[in-house]
Amino acid sequence: MSSVLVYMQELEKSLKATCEKFIMAVTKQVVDPMLSFVTKITVVKVALSFGTQNKKRDSVIAKPLKEQTFATPEALAELVQKVHSAIQRELPVVIAKMKLYLQNLSTRTILFKPK
Fold first, then answer.
1. On the chain, which terminus has fewer CB atoms closer than 10 Å, C or N?
2. Within 10 Å of residue 87's Cβ, how many Cβ atoms?
């Protein structure tokens, strides 16, 4: 009986880990353009910080954020539209598929059980 309990606990852990990977994959799929934007902002901030320390602000990356081509109002509007479109296109499909599995009470119990 003890080995069955251990097996069930391992199975639950594996199921939860797989679900977390799935959630991360869907999140990345939907908000990837936003993640790319945040990465670019981070690069610019680091470059500006480095440039200020070394007085080397000639680099394209070291230009202030408002001067970056990816940060123009038009580019930001396009970014928001891409994310919005991805949300509307991708999430309904994912939700429909998830409903197939989440109808099962035991699956919901395993997935949503507090740690």
1. C
2. 12
pTM, rounded to two decimals = 0.66
Instruction: Provide the domain limits for residue 83.
Output: 2-112
Question: CA-to-CA distance for 59 and 27, rounded, in angstroms?
Answer: 33
Residue (of 95, 113, 99) closest to 13 by Cα position: 113
Sign of the C-alpha dihedral, residues 4, 112, 22, 96? positive
Q: What would the two tokens of residue 66 be? A: 């408002």
Query: What are the tokens at 101?
Result: 């599995």
Give pLDDT tens digits for 48-104.
887 655 555 456 666 888 889 999 999 999 999 999 999 999 989 988 888 887 787
Number of domains in the chain: 1
Please provide the size of the chain in residues: 115
